[in-house]
Design brief:
Elements lengths: L12 H4 L1 E8 L8 E7 L1 H10 L7 E14 L2 E18 L11 E2 L2 E7 L2 E5 L4 H4 L1 H4 L14 H4 L2
Antiparallel strand pairs: 1-2, 2-3, 3-4, 4-6, 5-6, 6-7
Amino acid sequence: MDSQGGISRPTDFRTNFVHLGSYAVLDEKSASRGLHDVYTEKASAEHYRKTGKFLDGATLVKEIRKLETSAMTTGNPVVWGSDAAVWFVMVKDAKGRFASNPLWGDGWGWALFKADAPAKNVAVSYEADCMGCHVPAAKTDRVFIQGYPTLTQH
């Protein structure tokens, strides 16, 4: 994050962050179709497990990967995530540091990165680009906690 609230996509999240959990959206008509894997820093996960709240500055990365399927000896179909399609990044802002930045609000900074330009945040407003999906998670700080056993199961 820069001094103006610009959010960058962490490139080391798969190796240096903790995997919180996954969602699979199988609906072929859904724009959200794919395997949704979510990660955060180890300290942020530990803080949440102790307090039930996200640490100020916590970074959540959701990587959505395209789905592949095949018949395998373990089942038919077996579904897995292949190539990354998009990444969503949220940065916890308990202090309201960037109130004038349209990508910050409701206690978070919001960003969207696409596979064809993974270093460019293409979101322009958290209200237009992010809230549509996160409204149902208002009671859990805009995060779908039920899919993240790393945060909730001890």
